[in-house]
Design brief:
Blueprint lengths: L1 H41 L2
Length: about 45
């Protein structure tokens, strides 16, 4: 029973970590993309 509860807790923590981490990673990629586009406009 405790084992089952522990597995659910781990799944929840993994989901929580992903829901926090993924938007941050996506935001970083967007910033990088915007930075590259600006650089291309300056020196084509």
């Amino acid at each position: 029973m405790a084992e089952f509860f522990f597995e659910i807790l781990l799944e929840f923590l993994r989901w929580l970590a992903e829901s926090i981490a993924l938007p941050a990673v996506r935001e970083e990629k967007e910033k990088k993309k915007v930075g590259e586009e600006r650089r291309e406009k300056r020196n084509p």
